[in-house]
Automatic annotation (TrEMBL):
Biased composition (Basic and acidic residues): 198-214
Biased composition (Polar residues): 216-225
Stretch list, region Disordered: 38-140, 198-227
UniProt xrefs under Pfam families: DUF2017
Protein name: DUF2017 domain-containing protein
């Protein structure tokens, strides 16, 4: 039987059964694939614009004397300059390359059509044009960050008990939250009232199953009902597990020292 997360001398720990760890890990893997499906995000292309000094017959390539090039010369590429000069490690630019990857994408990146993916990758603004621009600039790094959290969670779930360091705990909690977001869309949860109603339904379902086992009626639920009930059980379980982790993290925080106590301690030292 699963136990809630609790603080330890090295971080946080929870005891989960093997099948519980397998289910959560599998869902984390599904969400990773879900996020990676946006690698080929639909783009609304912009109309090409001819700039001065470009030959339209050569696809917009610049013509400079006897040399034709596309403008992507080594002179304009700091990474290429570093490689050729040997003066700076190109890995210095790796972080900036990841953050600015969306700059090379022409046109507007369209939002996800799947509501679950859109909840994972929401619009950054109510204004459609601004939201599209923000999505083009930041969605790639956001997806990478979420996938990294989910992979960390899968690694942590390979061991029993599940042990997290103080640095790993926030990422594990974020991964659980992303799994919950996907499940909540599939279950039609749009508000806290919906979540409370689902929790009540799961509680009643558990009681009904106990009664069914006792009476041994032999009449099982429909396939659709069984799938929804299973998702609801998993959603409720992951919600409880995430809340227990966050509560353990809050309990582990040092208590604030009041102004009066600080003054008294200072007087004692002096």
């Amino acid at each position: 039987m699963a136990t809630a997360f609790r603080a330890t001398s090295t971080g946080y720990r929870a005891d989960l059964a093997a099948h519980e760890r397998r289910v959560i890990s599998s869902l984390c893997g599904d969400v990773i694939q879900f996020l990676e499906s946006r690698d080929d995000a639909p783009v609304e292309p912009e109309a090409p614009q001819q700039e001065a000094g470009q030959d339209p017959e050569q696809g917009g390539a610049e013509v400079t004397g006897s040399t034709t090039h596309s403008g992507a010369s080594d002179d304009a590429d700091p990474v290429a300059q570093a490689e050729h000069s040997g003066g700076m490690d190109p890995s210095t630019f790796a972080h900036f390359s990841a953050e600015l990857a969306g700059l090379d994408t022409p046109g507007e990146v369209l939002p996800p059509q799947d509501p679950a993916l859109r909840r994972l990758l929401p619009d950054g603004s109510a204004d459609p044009e601004e939201a599209s621009q923000l999505r083009r600039l930041s969605e790639s790094s956001l997806r990478a960050s979420k996938a990294a959290d989910l992979r960390l969670a899968r690694m942590a779930l390979e061991s029993s008990p599940v042990a997290l360091s103080e640095e790993q705990a926030p990422a594990f909690g974020r991964a659980l939250n992303d799994v919950r977001l996907v499940l909540s869309v599939r279950l039609g949860i749009e508000s806290q009232e919906d979540a409370d109603a689902l929790h009540d339904r799961v509680t009643r379902s558990r009681g009904s199953r106990k009664d069914a086992h006792a009476s041994d009626s032999g009449q099982g639920p429909s396939s659709r009902s069984g799938t929804d009930d299973f998702m609801a059980e998993i959603y409720t379980f992951i919600t409880w597990l995430q809340e227990s982790l966050f509560q353990a993290m809050v309990d582990f925080l040092p208590e604030d020292t009041g102004p009066g106590e600080a003054d008294d301690e200072g007087d004692a030292v002096r």
